[in-house]
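DATA SHEET
Item: assembly model
Revision: 1
Owner: S.N.
Input lines:
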Amino acid sequence: MRRRIGIDVGGTNTDAVLLEEDVVAAAVKTPTTVDVTTGITRALDELVERAPGARVAQAVMIGTTHFTNAVVQRRDLGRVAAVRIGLPSGASLPPFVDWPEDLAELVRAEVVMLEGGHEFDGRPLVPFDTRGMRAAARRIRDAGIRSVAVAAVFSPLNASGEEEAAAILQEECPDVAVTLSHRLGRIGLLERENAALLNACLIELARTTTRAFTHALRASGIAAPLYLTQNDGTVMLAEVAETYPVYSFASGPTNSMRGAAFLSKRDEALVIDVGGTTTDIGSLRHGFPREANNVVEIGGVRTLFRMPDLLSLGLGGGTLVKPAPSLTIGPASVGYRLTEQALVFGGDVLTVTDVAVAAGLIDLGDRARVASLPASLVMEALARIRAMIEEGVDRMKTDAGEAPLIAVGGGSFLVPPRLAGVSEVLNVPHQAVANAVGAAIAQVSGEVDQIFQDLSRDEAIARARRAAEDKAVAAGADRATINVVEVEDLPLAYLPGNSLRTRVRVVGEIARQP
Amino acid sequence: MRPVAAEEIESLAIGAWILGTGGGGSPYLALLNMRQLYRKGVVCQLMEASELADDDLVAVVSNMGAPLVGQERLTDPKTMALAVTMMEEYLGRKFRAVMSLEIGGGNSIQPFMAAAMLDLPVIDGDCMGRAFPEAQMTSFAIHDLRMYPLTLADVRDNAVVVARAASWKWMERISRKACVEVGSIASTCKAPRTGKEIKECAILGSTTKAIGIGRAVQAARRTHRDPIEAVLEVAAGVKIFSGKIHDIARRTTEGFLRGTASIEGLDGFRGHTFSLAFQNEFAVGWLDGEPRVMTPDLICVLDTVSGDAIGTETLRYGQRVTVIALPAPPILLTPKGIEHVGPRAFGYDLDFRSVFP
């Protein structure tokens, strides 16, 4: 039998599920712990206790916000040498140029700018300064820097400069971890370089964290390989993921949307994920979240990561309700202190959960404690919540027709069964652990974003597709199961010879281990 | 002449991106350059055209090339300055000031980059009052000023002087060829202008206008007011449509990004459809199939929530946008101006009708 374990490590809860074939065989929710791994071990132990089959699962997928939080909270970050290859171009805008100063000071150990790089058509800009690179590698070694990020001009089109730099670093300082920008990003030098720099400063943390995850797994008696989920709803083997921690940024919302698609068996729908503090609304296309196309900031650093296009509302189970002077809902929330502070749990704060209990939407805590809430207040608060959800849903819709809405998350009881502009509201079993389910079903992807010249549109796409498939297989996909999930082409103004920027993304099932 | 504060450059970047009417390229990288320069103590001076003597010479500068290449080969003040000093060498005369070719997009900040390196003031003005895709779409061309010489500099010590050109079209063809050869990105100094020509033929005050628009957006954001209303107020604009992009088609022909975007109405515009045609910049907009707004009126597409401008390259499915129109500079509305930059100049068989009375 095909068995997979999905784990979602959130800010409040660590959820784990066991998937047997396409059935959720067991699900657990435990509090997240400060050291993260204790929470995972507890969740796994509980899962194994409920479903002993978990011990023989073939794969374990973990989704975590650990690395995002490290950047946002400026903790556990390593010092990094930045190597930019592209002089004489770009001299005035060195690496770290648009970082928040506090973060740059924490991370920046050395900045090296060298001649090299390429043109948009793959011609060299100027020859690569390999002597300069060797001298820099020695300086990096002598300074005891352990992580290097390398970014070359137009490396997504021609990676030879970055590869050569990596080879020289390997010779001069073999213990240093090297992040090459073309493995991480698209066209856009600063944003791609930023992604490489973030990756480089997280790489030690990623190594220790993924190894601790693996350790937790083995301690629970599970021998399956470990995968980490990425922000596009796919996974990487932990050994690979530990060298690309930035790919896990924002994997939480992606997992919950993917889980929603799986649990509801819908590929085209809107998803609403109601948590304790916020509600995220997103849109599924072909079973994957629609991606945001714009620049995404992580801890104040501009990047071009693949992130789901989400609308976040300040509405969740712990959201405060203020009856006077006029009724207001949120955006403040009691968050994880819901079970102490909400009225139904013996506290003295009126929350959205209390309103829901009073209205009979859900049975939680002590219902008698909200019996005295005026019916008019309850009605008005519910009407307001409905209006917030309806407006949010409408904003995320891409056409005027009615669309199905899948409700997931611990606070999904707040989503009314009928909404304007929604054909049906889908409530599914295990909706509260949709994110762990999303992790369990994750596939492997490959992506190419490249400029093609003097090719027909079909030829360019075919070529990009083959390259994307090769990347997916290298990341652990079974070639026979690969599907194209996204094709985008953009003709380029001002470039000669019919230039076409083509982006193709493919996904496939995880290949069975040999 | 007055000093320009660092915050004003920030405002300029926001305002100029709006005046770019979808084109002109994002000012972000040019803004980063200015932040670096100001951090080193540079302070640029903004000069009124009236302060120029009639025989002073002004350098009109712009970056030329593909915006996408500009995202890899990052713009550099030294190259921009090189185009200007090359022109001085060619002419055997010094410039009194620099000015932007187009106030829309990243080229609004290029003269400040050159000015910082060369210690020259920047003229408050440009020759488009917005952004346009072609060389003859300037107030100087409308006034039949000479289009040569032009200098073009590349970061690798390649440089070209186009000494003469038979027409604006020829100037565009020759300089474009050189630009493509050096990697589709280059700094250019256009035909030098005298103080008299600037005073009579440039679009004056557009730098101050762009700064004002940007400042209004920033103030609205700080006080949680609607930034789009703030733009309409400060720039005497008209709200045209508001909705969600539901289709977008692009193609490149003759080196331009052409295409159409279709927007489905939201809020007060529910049930209506708006379609927008662009050639690098937005050219014509139709409401339910009827022409509603057209060039040279400025057609700006803004993010409905943030008020940030959205470029024709970054438009995408599902974005929530508001279309506004801003008044065009009067020179563009003359019969000759309409000939150069009206709807027929973009291939639309429409008689120009402004949305402004």
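QC remark: Chain A touches chain B through 44 residues (CB under 8 Å).
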